[in-house]
Structure formats: C-alpha cells, structure tokens
Automatic annotation (TrEMBL):
InterPro entries: Bact_response_regulator, CheY-like_superfamily, Sig_transdc_resp-reg_receiver. It comes from the Bacteria. It holds the Pfam family Response_reg. The lineage of its organism: Bacteria, Pseudomonadati, Bacteroidota, Sphingobacteriia, Sphingobacteriales. PANTHER family: PROTEIN PILG, STRESS RESPONSE REGULATOR PROTEIN 1. This is Response regulator receiver domain-containing protein. Keywords: Phosphoprotein, Two-component regulatory system.
Length: 121
C-alpha cells in the first residue's frame, strides 16, 4: 500500500512540482493551498505532512501545534518548509519533526520523507 503524503503550501508551483516528484517516487499525494483545511481532517490522516510556514491566512506553526496536541495526529511526522532559515527554530518549537528551507533539494526531501516513514530510499 502506498504511503500518503499531504502537502500544504499556497504556492501552486511548489504544489505541482512536489506532487509530481512524490508521485513519481511512489507516494499517494494530496495537497491543499490552505493550511487550515489540514485541521479539518478527522479520518484518513496522511502518513506525513509537508507544511509551509507562511500561507495566506494561516501560520503553519499554529497548524503544527494544533496537530501535535491532538491525540489522533500527534505522532504524524510534520516537515515544515519555508524560504526563511530564521524560522527553523520556531518550526521546531511548534513541534515540527524536521525543517527544509526553500528552494529545497528534491533528493533531500525524498530522503527525509523516507526516513520518517521508515523506508529506505
């Protein structure tokens, strides 16, 4: 069964590129441009969430904190992404399992996802 990865980013170019890469890598990918919709998921959580810090109307760190507080989603790995390296510390403080700076290397992203999903790449 394919591992599910969800991408939450308000940049359509990133959504398209990362979705294509991950699907090519053998993942079942879903995406949203609104981080708040991630909080509405009550069943069928993804196996991993790739979450942008700055999205219009939503701070990914708030979404991350909320997901890590909830019993059913607290163990889901969350990799936060941002164009600003200064935000790595605050991403970790919000409970993110890892951080990637944009633009990121696709190989590095695939390796991090494989690591958190217990797969070898």
């Amino acid at each position: 069964m394919l591992k599910k990865v969800m991408i939450a980013d308000d940049d359509p170019g990133i959504l398209d590129a990362v979705t294509a890469m991950l699907e090519f890598g053998g993942y079942d990918v879903s995406s949203t441009s609104d981080g708040a919709t991630v909080l509405e998921i009550t069943d069928q959580l993804p196996d991993l969430l790739l979450l942008d810090i700055w999205m219009s109307g939503t701070d990914g760190r708030d979404v991350c904190k909320e997901l890590k507080k909830r019993e059913f989603s607290k163990n889901m790995p969350i990799i936060m992404i941002s164009a600003s390296t200064e935000l790595e510390r605050s991403a970790k403080d919000a409970g993110a399992d890892d951080f990637l700076e944009k633009p990121f290397d696709m190989e590095e992203l695939l390796n991090k996802i494989a690591h958190f999903l217990g797969q070898t790449n």
